[in-house]
Amino acid sequence: MNPEPRPDSVEVAGHARAGAPVLTAYLLILITAILGMIRLGDRGESEIVGLLVVPTILFAIITLIGFIVVQPNTSAVLVFFGKYRGTIRKEGFYWTNPFMAKTKISLRANNLASETIKVNDLNGNPIEIGAVVVWRVDNTAKASFDVEDYEDYVKVQIETAVRELAKTHPYESHRDEDGGLDPQSGDPAALRDGGEVVTNELTAELQRRLNRAGIEVLEARISHLAYALEIASAMLQRQQAAAIISARRLIVEGAVGMVEQAIAGLEKKGVVDLDDERKATMVSNLLVVLCSHAEPTPVVNAGGVYN
């Protein structure tokens, strides 16, 4: 029979006395005790003084242990003989039961950069990915009692969440024939150009994993993203080829439009009378001039087209 899961710890407000009045009373009692022992010593009652020295020292030490200072954006978790007694969140000077264990937990925002890990993306390509996460403790009871070490827990869960994100998204999006993103591909947002979609998914996944430790994720973003070294060169060549094809397609489309305008303008103004063969020759020459990599070299034809 499996035991029932332990419920999550619930943070409650801890109770502590103001430290200044207790410190004043503590000093008055201590000074009175010391003066009393001095007077007893002057009267020659050294045996009584000897009996009072140890209790006075113990009183001074034990009472002093009960004082605690809580800094801004810091909390103190109170535990009395293994039982949770609440959390002090308000900054100030306090006194609590000297036998109360007091563990301070920072409530300030923490910035953590995960290590760069290598994992396969949705398409099976090995990639390197890392993230930067801003987090803080939201529930001190969970952070103290539900996980062994909440800081180490955060580090491990960040790496796990980043790895899971990379496995469920492609590095790059599919592109249509015009070089733009293909909305009909049906694939999840790409890691490289997914933007806020990927960021929000990473934040939500981290928050789900860190709820057990009482951690609030303030921000999470991918800080490093690249193909793994073994395929980086091949992928760079593919990207360059895709860029060249896209650029060439744009050049050809522009050249065709310019040729159409040139022929239409010549015929409209009656500059020349072009038959189909001369049009084909002009189109060929114009496309060579407009689409060529190198500087075109003009050739003067002194004869006719049919010669």
Please tell me about this protein's structure.
The protein has 307 residues and is α+β, with helices and mostly antiparallel strands. The chain folds into three domains: 17-105, no CATH class; 110-227, Tetrahydropterin Synthase, Chain A; 232-291. The chain has seven helices and ten strands. The protein has helices at 19-42, 46-65, 140-145, 150-167, 196-210, 229-269, 276-291; strands spanning 17-18, 67-70, 74-80, 83-88, 92-95, 100-106, 110-113, 117-120, 126-137, 215-227. The strands form three sheets. Strands 7, 8, 9 and 10 form a four-stranded antiparallel sheet that branches. The chain has a three-stranded antiparallel sheet with strand order 1-5-2. Strand 8 (117-120) and strand 9 form a beta hairpin. The protein is rod-shaped and about 135 Å long.
